[in-house]
């Protein structure tokens, strides 16, 4: 095997073996909603579903109706219309007029120093009266019995915060990107460590972040997250650092997300991440990840040991991608060329970083945020401050 070929194929083979190991552990250990029994109780704790919505007229009615039909006995729904310029507000008002469980909060202006979504979450929290709070995006659908299963399980296990991995429906062109993203998520983040109180690993999910109100009250609160782009994930970090018991579960067919309708919409949505890191760091990170994801292909250019190792890596990689699809109720055909998803994902992230560099910041939910302001508000990764400092500021 030529040395330069080995430099590509061997690290890529090791990467895919590592992914397979991490995924196997996650599949074996993460609880599934489908395995949680649906209990019958004389009384349930009140649950407030907070739905921040901006320009969600296409999804809002069907998604909210699926949650109302879900069947949780003590449910209230707080829809926050975050400065929408489509029919979102009118749809929310019509839904509220037809069901007393729904409350609508209209946000007309965004206070300085807040991201729109986090501010909408705070406004919804201010109106919520439940002992459990579920933060969930406007395009999430729940199957009947989901909340009873998860709340009963959380109370039985003494868990304060439950984040659920959803299944997703997407257009055929977006399915490889989606499948690759979730596969790499299970690799880069040790999801099985989220439930370990001794581990610093924490997680959250914009699709399904269920938290006890008492645990949220013990934390610095949403104000600590007011300029965090990845608010769903950072919520999990904040809660765990505040002493909340946390769990990551698999929603599967019980928690379903309607993914972006096109690649162009995905690009626009992820532009908000562009100011998180300098352009050169983003490019370097994507280049390394691309080499790990696709480096095994180089082996087929040289007959002999290199091609055999590349073939073995393909088998492991394809099996890993199929396992992700089966586990998360997602399409499995992207396993035909495992690793190819890094191309569209890398393009979107690099494009976002370049745009943020050229613009001097990012536009999200109709508001421009300078790069310095975005980075000052980041609560994750190397920018992460201590929460004590936030409290005293």
Describe the protein's topology.
Layout: H1 3-29, E1 47-53, H2 60-68, E2 75-82, H3 88-98, E3 102-107, H4 116-127, E4 132-135, E5 140-142, H5 146-157, E6 161-169, H6 175-188, E7 209-212, H7 213-217, H8 231-241, E8 246-258, H9 263-270, H10 279-294, H11 305-327, H12 342-359, E9 361-364, E10 367-370, H13 371-376, H14 387-392
Parallel strand pairs: 1-2, 1-4, 2-3, 6-8
Antiparallel strand pairs: 4-7, 5-8, 6-7, 9-10
Helix pairs in contact: 1-6, 1-10, 1-11, 2-3, 6-11, 9-12, 10-12
Domain Glycosyltransferase 2-like: 48-216
Transmembrane segments: 279-301, 308-329, 335-357
Organism: Nannocystis punicea
Structural summary, described in words:
The protein is of the alpha/beta class and 393 residues long. It folds into two domains: 3-26 and 264-392, no CATH class; 29-260, Spore Coat Polysaccharide Biosynthesis Protein SpsA, Chain A. The chain is built from 14 helices and ten strands. Strands 3-2-1-4-7-6-8-5 form an eight-stranded mixed beta sheet, sandwiched between helices. A two-stranded antiparallel ribbon has the order 9-10. A hairpin with a 2-residue loop joins β9 (361-364) and β10. α1 runs parallel beside α11, α2 runs parallel beside α3 and α10 (279-294) runs antiparallel to α12. The radius of gyration is 22 Å and the shape is globular. The relative contact order is 0.16. Pfam families: Glycos_transf_2. Residues 48-216 form the Glycosyltransferase 2-like domain. InterPro entries: Glyco_trans_2-like, Nucleotide-diphossugar_trans. Keywords: Membrane, Transmembrane, Transmembrane helix. The chain crosses the membrane at residues 279-301, 308-329, 335-357.
């Amino acid at each position: 095997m030529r040395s330069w070929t080995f430099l590509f194929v061997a690290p890529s083979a090791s990467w895919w073996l590592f992914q397979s190991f991490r995924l196997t552990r996650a599949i074996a250990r993460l609880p599934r909603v489908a395995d949680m029994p649906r209990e019958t109780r004389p009384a349930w704790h009140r649950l407030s579903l907070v739905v921040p919505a901006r320009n969600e007229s296409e999804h809002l009615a069907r998604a909210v109706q699926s949650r109302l039909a879900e069947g949780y006995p003590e449910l209230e729904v707080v829809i926050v219309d975050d400065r929408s310029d489509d029919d979102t507000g009118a749809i929310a008002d019509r839904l509220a007029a037809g069901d007393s469980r729904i409350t609508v909060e209209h946000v007309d202006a965004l206070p300085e120093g807040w991201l729109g979504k986090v501010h909408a979450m705070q406004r919804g929290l201010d109106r919520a009266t439940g002992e459990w709070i579920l933060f969930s995006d406007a395009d999430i659908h729940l199957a009947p019995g989901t909340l009873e299963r998860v709340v009963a399980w959380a109370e039985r296990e003494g868990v304060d915060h439950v984040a659920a991995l959803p299944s997703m429906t997407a257009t055929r062109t977006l399915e490889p990107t989606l499948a690759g993203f979730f596969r790499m998520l299970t690799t880069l983040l040790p999801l099985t460590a989220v439930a370990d109180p001794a581990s610093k690993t924490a997680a959250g999910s914009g699709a399904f972040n269920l938290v006890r109100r008492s645990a949220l009250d013990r934390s610095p609160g949403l104000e600590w997250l007011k300029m965090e782009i990845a608010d769903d994930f950072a919520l999990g970090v904040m809660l765990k650092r505040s002493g909340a018991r946390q769990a990551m579960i698999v929603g599967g067919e019980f928690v379903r997300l309607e993914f972006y309708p096109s690649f162009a919409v995905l690009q626009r949505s992820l532009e908000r991440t562009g100011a998180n890191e300098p352009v050169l760091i983003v490019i370097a990170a994507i280049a390394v990840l691309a080499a790990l994801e696709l480096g095994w292909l180089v082996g087929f250019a040289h007959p002999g040991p290199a091609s055999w190792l590349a073939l073995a890596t393909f088998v492991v990689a394809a099996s890993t991608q199929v396992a992700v699809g089966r586990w998360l109720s997602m399409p499995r055909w992207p396993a035909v060329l495992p690793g190819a998803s890094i191309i569209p994902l890398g393009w979107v992230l690099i494009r976002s970083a370049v745009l943020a560099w050229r613009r001097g910041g990012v536009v999200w939910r109709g508001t421009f945020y300078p790069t310095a302001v975005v980075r000052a508000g980041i609560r994750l990764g190397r920018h992460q401050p201590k929460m004590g400092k936030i409290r005293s500021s």
